[in-house]
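Case 380 in the screening queue. Each case pairs one protein sequence with one candidate compound; here the compound is manganese (II) ion. For every case the pipeline is the same: read the inputs, emit a complex structure as tokens, and attach any notable structural observations.

Predict complex for case 380.
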Amino acid sequence: MDLYEYQGKQLFRRFGIAVSEGRLATSPEEARAAAVELGGQVVVKAQVLTGGRGKAGGVKLADDPADAEQKAREILGLDIRGHVVRRLWVERASEIAKEYYLSVTFDRSEKKPLFMLTTEGGVEIEEVAATKPEALARLHANVLEGFQPYQGRRLIYGAGIDDPGEQKQVLDIVGKLYDCFTQSDAMLCEINPLVVTPDGTVKALDAKVTVDDSALFRHPDVAEMRDIAAADPLEAFAREKGVTYVKLDGSVGILGNGAGLSMSTVDVVVVAGGRPANFCDLGGGGDAQGVVDALEVIVRDPDVRSIFFNIFGGITRGDEVARGILTALERMSIDLPIVVRLDGTNAEEGRELLSEAAPPNLHVEPTMLEAARRAVELAA
Ligand code: GDP
Ligand code: MN
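Case 380 output:
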């Protein structure tokens, strides 16, 4: 789950990382009121779950409350790469002497948290990595030892920060960011830019935090930060039903049991000359309710022209899945063609059940490739 900047900053503040004082606003009038409360120059910032807001005109300085209201009017409703701005964060403007970058994320190949720090902040980190890789200090944390100050110092020297005052503050922030990362079950905590003000104070001017969905049960306060309105309605519906659903841009709806099989199914549909409309994972189960839920999600996708049901029976038995499919089709009427490939445990029984009782729009194919070809043909 991605957090908005203001939510990320709320989390940072909780862990003692310096951020500017600010207010949330959803209208130009609220932005004006926020500017009155904060006093002086403010920065009006679009709250959308995508980066590069500055370049897209979503971050603007305002000199006084009237100006803040005007800037809010310009930013609200703006479409930033498909994200419409409905919330603003108005914070006390900072003077910037330097812009650094600091993040901690997972390095999956090393199986360790990875810190990255550079004095070349403010721009996309991919750009720094590509054009000036020597400026990017990288350091793996040892999760058993936890964060150690000597590691932080190594990171800071690596990035070439030589001012003692900055070193001290950045070291403190690195430690706190590590606490925030581990204690929030985050997958990414990024500060870009981490600024140094003219008087030498270091603070976070932006916040990008992603929390592991699977750990949200441990963080009800974070879980309730989710903005239902910003999510794709179909994805929200799928989440509500407990179905893993990923939207793709083709016309074959895919339902598999298990993420690995579902992903292979995506590939096979492409091999057969088609394009998947989505990727739906039933998980380990295949009971009637699970099948109904997944089918309900798939048929709501207007791009779906045929449904490819790909099941490999392991612990889930083929006859059970077949019964699930039949029950689901009794409970809901589906006009779209459905192609089923059943293999593995009790596949034979499952296929028999289907061929005895299945409606005419349900086609049973013996192999994954044949089923993919049929689904692609029916989607054309
Ligand atoms: P992003 O473009 O989505 O990453 O949004 P940021 O929050 O990083 O803001 C973009 C840029 O706006 C920053 O890199 C800063 O240069 C600038 N900016 C943001 N807040 C302030 C501020 O308080 N004062 C000044 N002078 N510039 C700011
Ligand atoms: Mn930024």
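Case 380 observations:
- The longest strand covers residues 186-196.
- The mean pLDDT is 93.
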